[in-house]
Model the fold of this input.
Amino acid sequence: MRLGDLGEFALIRRIARESVVAGAHVVKGIGDDCSVTTCRGNLLRLVTTDLLIERVHFLRDGVTPRQLGAKALAVNLSDIAAMGGVAGDAYVCLALPDDLTVEYVEEMYRGMKGTAAAFSVNVLGGDTTGSKADLVISVTVTGEVERAAVLYRSGARPGDRIYLSGPVGDSGAGLDALLTRRGGGEVDELVRRHLEPIPHLVQGRVIAASRLGHAMIDVSDGVAIDLSHICEESGVGAIVHEDTLPISPELAAYSRHFGLDPTSFALGGGEDYVLLLTGEDSLGSVAATAGVRLFEIGRIIEEPRMLLRRADGSASPLEPRGWDHFKKTDPLR
Amino acid sequence: MRLGDLGEFALIRRIARESVVAGAHVVKGIGDDCSVTTCRGNLLRLVTTDLLIERVHFLRDGVTPRQLGAKALAVNLSDIAAMGGVAGDAYVCLALPDDLTVEYVEEMYRGMKGTAAAFSVNVLGGDTTGSKADLVISVTVTGEVERAAVLYRSGARPGDRIYLSGPVGDSGAGLDALLTRRGGGEVDELVRRHLEPIPHLVQGRVIAASRLGHAMIDVSDGVAIDLSHICEESGVGAIVHEDTLPISPELAAYSRHFGLDPTSFALGGGEDYVLLLTGEDSLGSVAATAGVRLFEIGRIIEEPRMLLRRADGSASPLEPRGWDHFKKTDPLR
Done:
């Protein structure tokens, strides 16, 4: 069996999951945005780690080195945000192909340092080595969160409201514009949102401090898939109201311009790196008093299935799929 | 300037060093085997991270997947050992090319889990993704060490004895045998020592607990280079006595058999993953009572240069070079 065969990757992820060997201090070893271990007193320690591989996660001519460095750190910080945590230290490993220039590497580090400074993160050790083919960036970030404030994917309860901490679909539309080489007034901004995501660390802390949230994840795979993670881990279902999805003016304009469905981007486009969460009815207004706007998009239900309710009152199953799959199911495309 | 040009990698390492942004809790951000931050009470937190890239660090047909998985974890555990620390949790990221089989990945994890179990390390989260060309393994390991026991590269003092926690040169000779396709009675064992290094975590703890050590590093690049790191960071020099270098019977036989110089392997061969340390005169006997044998190989001197004293009493400069460079200076080869 070769990994290239369909479905093999799911098997590999199962093997990785089964390879977890956890000790008594481990609160969560796998299956959330970060691993969680006991730290000191009432604090928990968070660790998250990600690999970015050229030609799998990025094309070198589709992103500037500064954007690449910044994004490599930002996506890990987003995992800390998704637990309600405070980010601590970052460890960066680079495998650099021979044809890269010194200036390219300097720019990558500039991007990383800029993001680190913006979120008071320390960039500490790491490893720099050669690569025969692709550029590889591996970032590990640590963080901390109070035991009473940590938010897992598994905490959603029937009756919870479902919230987003920002608009969704922009990043997916930006990627779509890059891949289809579409231009236009709003395209630059969408592409920028795809290439320069901002981790919602401040929003995550406000939500955690409110003690009114029950479950949280960051939107990396898309609202539909990431909401399905919350539902699965919590043993619940969800109803999402299409007309409440936060669509940016740029995504609305792009969709209108090219005859596309903004809901597909909003539910299926990944890499928005906003927070998707569930919690009490009062969470939205409490967060607002702390300056964080939450968009309510639906409700958690007891029955373990996901539904999309349209503006006309009709409802259809909400499949946990990415934008690419939403697109493929549209017979007109 | 392209990275492939000679010397560019040194520049990159400088850029990486300058990119360190450290906060108040950071004891050591870069320049040692692990980064060191304050943890709780008298404990310090250690973090080390490494990238293993196919065709740079290993050839897929030169190592079994089980050995590869075990070694990827072992070399990081060796970094924890070099600080005198206790290993904690491991985070593993894999980028897997399409032509890999599921069985290969299972074997890699088996190797990793075996080493993890042997040293009571928890394998927690991580990331599994695809790769267009090379297999990439990224491992991050955390650890802890008492503030009074931690050993840095920078602690060596004039008059210190220099010790090794095991024989050196075996791994380099094993790699030499692999590259030259040499066979023979002792070759299998040398190759095994190259492919299956054992981190000296127990030895590191005994040395740290004795409070008689002053500086420590693990032998990854070779004794000559790693000793130069201790000398540079400590602002001292060293004299190494050639006839006291611990040479295994297998390395002696291999060198005799093929007319090679065992001292070159001992000083220049890397990846032995034993500990190289300096400390008090009594350290060797105190460690021995705890069951850890240390080999005394020389003395730290005030003058910042390294010397090799031969059995006949003559001395020559000890250059911080790897085995390959030692070899090249031999005009008969």
